[in-house]
Amino acid sequence: MKPYSDRARGREHAEPAESDRPVPKPVLFLLVALFGWGLYYIGAQVGAPLAGGDSRTPVVAAAAADGATVYAANCAACHQATGQGLTGAFPPLVGSEWVQADPAVATAIVLHGLHGPIEVAGKTYQGVMPAFGGQFSDAEVAAVVSYIRTSWGNDAGEIDAEQVSELRSRFGDHPAWEGGQLQAEFGEP
């Protein structure tokens, strides 16, 4: 008979080893297929325009930009859906002399942004409006500026994408406007 210590050792199983249990073939097939698909996807995207990571058409097509949609998505958070703004924080667009002045003024503000003090309807606002020129096409800028100039009782008239294109090329990479710069460039609103 075996000694007591040998009986305990005999009940133990051998240590598992990788060679005893290879990766199942379906798992290997899945990994190879995923790797192949990844290479194909990356190869298919080389040279494609980077429009949000893929080549889908934007929600607001440039040719048929809707000013109300662009405004609701980008402007209403500050200027409110009614165009009334927030007292002390964001100026109103309703009846604003800046909106109803030369259309180049509102277009320049949308394209390049605005910072510093500005007087609107007799009240001074100190804030920052971001530039949307890098995000919006000329048609989208024209649509949103036209929407602002013709909504809520404003009767300043519409503009077109050609006017926006001219202003975009005229001012290039202009930094954010200040109220005084707007007055110097475009005159009193």
How is this structure best described in words?
Helix content is 46%, strand content 7%. It is mostly helical and 189 residues long. It folds into 2 domains: 35 residues; 125 residues, Orthogonal Bundle (Cytochrome Bc1 Complex, Chain D, domain 2). It has a two-stranded antiparallel ribbon. Helix 3 packs across helix 7, helix 6 crosses helix 7 and helix 7 packs across helix 8. It starts with a helix and ends with a helix. The model has no long low-confidence stretch (mean pLDDT 79).
Structure summary, number of beta strands: 2
Helical proportion, percent range: 40-55%
- Write down the CATH class of the largest domain: Mainly Alpha
What string gives the helices and strands in order?
A: HHHHHHEEHHH
Query: If strands are numbered along the chain, what order do they take across the biggest sheet?
Result: 1-2
| Major sheet summary line | 2 strands, antiparallel
Overall pLDDT, averaged? 79
CATH superfamily of the largest domain: Cytochrome c-like domain
Q: Mind telling me the C-alpha Rg?
A: 31 Å
Uncertain runs with pLDDT below 50, 5 residues or more?
Answer: none
DSSP strand content: 5-15%
Q: What shape does the CA trace take?
A: elongated
Distance between the termini: 110 Å
Which structural category do the helix and sheet elements fall into? mainly alpha
CATH T-level topology of the largest domain: Cytochrome Bc1 Complex, Chain D, domain 2
